[in-house]
Amino acid sequence: MSLANLNLAAEADAILARLGVETSAYRGGSLTVRSPISGEELGKLPEMDARSAEQAIDAAHGAFLEWRLVPAPKRGELIRLLGEELRAAKADLGRLVSIEVGKITSEGLGEVQEMIDICDFAVGLSRQLYGLTIATERAEHRMMETWHPLGVVGIISAFNFPVAVWSWNAALALVCGNATVWKPSEKTPLTALATQAIFEKALKRYISEGGTAPKNLSTLIIGGRDIGEVMVDHPKVPLVSATGSTAMGRAVGPRLAQRFARAILELGGNNAAIVTPTADLDLTLRGVAFAAMGTAGQRCTTLRRLFVHESVYDKLVPRLQKAYQSVTIGNPMVDGNLVGPLIDKASFERMQKALNAAKAEGGKVTGGERVLADQAADAYYVRPAIVEMPSQCGPVVEETFAPILYVMKYSDFDAVLELHNGVPQGLSSSIFTNDIREAETFVSDRGSDCGIANVNIGPSGAEIGGAFGGEKETGGGRESGSDAWKAYMRRATNTVNYGRTLPLAQGVKFDI
Ligand code: NAD
C-alpha cells in the first residue's frame, strides 16, 4: 500500500480509545503531532501553560508526602501491576510507538518490552533498597546508612524512545517512594498519553486490591521546552532526569545546579566501533548494520564512527556498502522493511548538511539520498549513508541524529584508541576482535572512555539490567539497572548510641 493511503490517524484513534485515552486529550489544541511514516496529522493536543504546570508539580509534591509512607515492597506491587498492564497493552502501545516515531514493528514492541523488563526489575528492587551497616570506632554505637525518598522526580524525555525512558525513570523513582512528573517530547505526546492511561489502569487495580496510593502520583505535563523549564526551575523538584540533546543538557544542567537540584543527564552520543584484524567479519557486518542503520540512525547509541584495521578494510567495507545499498527502506510497519523514516524535515536537512560538510573534508559518500518522496511529500525517508573519511574531522566529531556511518582506516591499536576517545561525547562503544589482549584493553582503564563498552556486539541495544548512560558531553547520568536507583533516593548516615556514655569520635574530649 502506498504511504499516502495508510490512514494512520484512524488507527491511532482506535488504539488510543482501546487504551483509555479520551479524544479531548488530543483534539482541538495547539500542539500538532504527525506520523513520520506518512506526514499525516494524528492530533492536536492542548498544551499546559506555566501556571498549570506549576500546579501539577505542587500536587505531585503532595502525593510524594503520602507515598513515601507506603512501605517499599507495597510500592513495588503497583509497579508489578503496571508491568501486567503493559503486557496486556504491548501490541497496541508498540504499534502506537511505530506510528508516532516511525520505528519498525519489532522495535516498537521491543520498546514496550523494555518497559515491562524495568517494571520486573523495580519490583525486585522494592525489597532490596539496601543500606550498609558500618563499623564504628565508638563502643556501644551502631552506624548505618538508610535510603529515603527524595520528592518529586521530573522526567524530560526525547522523541526517539518516547515511552521506555519514562519507564526507566518512573519504575525506579516510584518504588523508591517518589512522585513523578513527566514532560514528554513535543514530537511524541500521544504515546505519553497512552502510557499515562495504562499507568492509571494499574493504579486503579492497585487501589481496588487494597493498596494505598495518593492522587497525582505520576502526572503528565504536555508542552514544549518552556514547560520543561518550569519543571527545571521548580523548587519542589529535587531531581530532574533529562534525556535529549547535549544542547538541552547545556541549558538544563546549569539551571538545576543553580538551585542545587540533582540532575540525571542522558544526552547525545557519538558512538564508535573498532574492527581489528582478528574480527569475525560476518558477525561484525551484522553488528554494524543493526547498530548503524537500525531505528534509521536515531538512537542515542547508534553507531556513527567505524574504525577498520587496514588489513580487513577491503574485505569489510565493500560488503557493508552492499548491505547499505540493498537494505529495505519504507513503511516501518511492513514486515521486511528495516529502515523507517526520519522524524521530520529538520532532521533530514541536518543530515544533508552533515554529508556536505563531510564531502568538503574529503569524505566519499555512498547513499544518503531521500527516497519515497513521490509517495509522501511530508515524510522523510533516506538511504543510510556510508562516508569513507580520510580522518576524524568536521562532522565526524559531532552527533548528527540520522543514519550516517563515518568509516576510517587505522593501522595502530593505541592510536585508534586515542581517536576512539577523541570526541566530546562518551556514551557507547564496541570492539570487534578475537584477540583477548585487545578486547580486555578496550574495557580496561586505558580503553574506551564511554559509559558502555562492548566486545563483539554493536554499541546499541542495551538491556535494562545494566546501568545506562555516558560520560563527557553525554552528561554523566546513569539510569535503569545496577545501582542506578541510588540517584532517586537520599542517603542518610545514622549513628545510634545504645550505651550510657558519650564517647566522641577521633578521641575529642569535651567534659562539662
Ligand atoms: P531535544 O534535546 O530536542 O529534546 C529532548 C527533550 O528536552 C524534549 O522533551 C524537549 O522539549 C526538552 N527540552 C529541550 N530544551 C529544553 C530546555 N531548555 N528545558 C527543558 N526541557 C527542554 O532532543 P530530541 O531531538 O527529542 O532527541 C534526540 C537527542 O536525544 C539526541 O541527541 C540523542 O542522542 C539524545 N538521546 C539521548 C539518550 C541517552 O540516554 N543518552 C536517549 C535518547 C536520546
TrEMBL record:
Provide the alphabetized UniProt keywords: NAD, Oxidoreductase
* CDD domains xref list: ALDH_F7_AASADH (cd07130)
Keyword Oxidoreductase assigned: yes
Q: What EC designation does it have?
A: 1.2.1.3
Where in this chain does the record put each Aldehyde dehydrogenase domain? 30-491
Protein family per UniProt = Belongs to the aldehyde dehydrogenase family.
Designated name of the protein = aldehyde dehydrogenase (NAD(+))
Q: Which organism is it from?
A: Rhizobium helianthi
**What is this organism's lineage?**
Bacteria, Pseudomonadati, Pseudomonadota, Alphaproteobacteria, Hyphomicrobiales
